[in-house]
């Protein structure tokens, strides 16, 4: 048999040459999957590079900057102007400047936190307005992982619902924010005793990296698992870093 396959490609997160592979699997187990290679040049319309504002790991207390380019291709694109940029609900300093490189022209948009973002994951949405008839209003995600010198993979361990009598386990990576940070000896304790916790050096032997193992024991009583784990290091000013534990043990037999 035969059919038509329609592929929709969302371009706002890409620019320039893009290569993707589409894997097609049939119901016939004797037929091997087929791979179709997709090649695109994303050059028309409003091209954003990069397609999101990801600040990456940010040291708490700092105010990082990031630049995004709204541009068009000279041969196939259409000239436009950026008429406004904002991050609703958040205080950013935003600067724009003309941009030109090779066959591309447009506007460089620089985002900077006016105040240092708080500890934890930062998430917002920026709005870019243009006079392009097809792209008058474009939204773009703004994210950052704000951390101390003691970097935690997550600041919350969420177990969800745990059946009574069943053990459950989770692991959180702990490492230095940068190469000049020495965590020293790392230990971990449960403040409320609702979960068991131990710490081990990274199983792949990464220098200075540790792993916190959190367990809900089989004999955990029914009720909330709310607890705080204290991650203790030798980093001045960050000798204790808190890791929140959430969840609930349920008596599913009731």
Condensed summary:
This protein has 254 residues and is mainly beta. It contains no helices and 19 strands. The strands form 5 sheets. Strands 12, 14, 17, 18 and 19 form a 5-stranded mixed beta sheet that branches. The protein has a 4-stranded antiparallel beta sheet with strand order 3-5-8-7, with no helix packed on it. It has a 4-stranded mixed beta sheet with strand order 4-10-9-6, with no helix packed on it.
Could you name the key traits of this structure?
254 residues, mainly beta, five-stranded mixed β-sheet, four-stranded antiparallel β-sheet, 19 strands
Describe the overall structure.
There is one protein chain. The chain has 254 residues and is mainly beta. It has strands at residues 16-24, 34-42, 47-49, 53-59, 65-73, 82-86, 92-101, 104-113, 120-130, 137-147, 150-152, 156-163, 168-176, 187-190, 196-201, 210-216, 223-224, 227-232, 240-250. The chain is built from no helices and 19 strands. Strands 12, 14, 17, 18 and 19 form a five-stranded mixed sheet that branches. A hairpin with a 6-residue loop joins strand 9 and strand 10. The mean pLDDT is 90.
Give the arrangement of secondary structure elements:
Blueprint: E1 16-24, E2 34-42, E3 47-49, E4 53-59, E5 65-73, E6 82-86, E7 92-101, E8 104-113, E9 120-130, E10 137-147, E11 150-152, E12 156-163, E13 168-176, E14 187-190, E15 196-201, E16 210-216, E17 223-224, E18 227-232, E19 240-250
Parallel strand pairs: 4-10, 12-19
Antiparallel strand pairs: 1-2, 3-5, 5-8, 6-9, 7-8, 9-10, 11-13, 13-16, 14-18, 15-16, 17-19, 18-19
């Amino acid at each position: 048999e035969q059919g038509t396959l329609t592929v929709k490609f969302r371009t706002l997160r890409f620019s320039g040459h893009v290569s993707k592979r589409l894997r097609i699997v049939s119901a016939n187990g004797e037929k091997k999957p087929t791979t179709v290679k997709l090649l695109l040049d994303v050059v028309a319309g409003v091209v954003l590079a990069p397609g999101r504002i990801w600040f990456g790991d940010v040291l708490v207390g700092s105010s990082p900057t990031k630049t995004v380019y709204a541009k068009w291709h000279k041969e196939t694109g259409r000239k436009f102007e950026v008429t406004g940029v904002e991050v609703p609900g958040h205080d950013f300093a935003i600067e724009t400047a003309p941009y030109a490189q090779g066959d591309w022209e447009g506007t460089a948009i620089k985002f900077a936190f006016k105040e240092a973002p708080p500890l934890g994951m930062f998430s917002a949405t920026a709005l870019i307005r243009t006079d392009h008839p097809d792209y008058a209003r474009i939204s773009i995600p703004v994210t950052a992982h704000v951390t101390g010198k003691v970097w935690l993979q997550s600041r919350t361990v969420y177990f969800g619902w745990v059946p009574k009598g069943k053990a459950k386990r989770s692991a959180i990576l702990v490492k230095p924010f940068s190469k000049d940070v020495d965590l020293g000896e790392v230990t971990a304790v449960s403040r409320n005793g609702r979960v068991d916790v131990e710490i081990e050096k990274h199983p792949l032997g990464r220098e200075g990296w540790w792993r916190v193992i959190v367990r809900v024991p089989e004999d955990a009583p029914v009720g909330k698992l709310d607890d705080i784990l204290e991650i203790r290091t030798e980093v001045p000013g960050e000798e204790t870093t808190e890791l929140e534990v959430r969840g609930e043990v349920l008596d599913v037999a009731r």
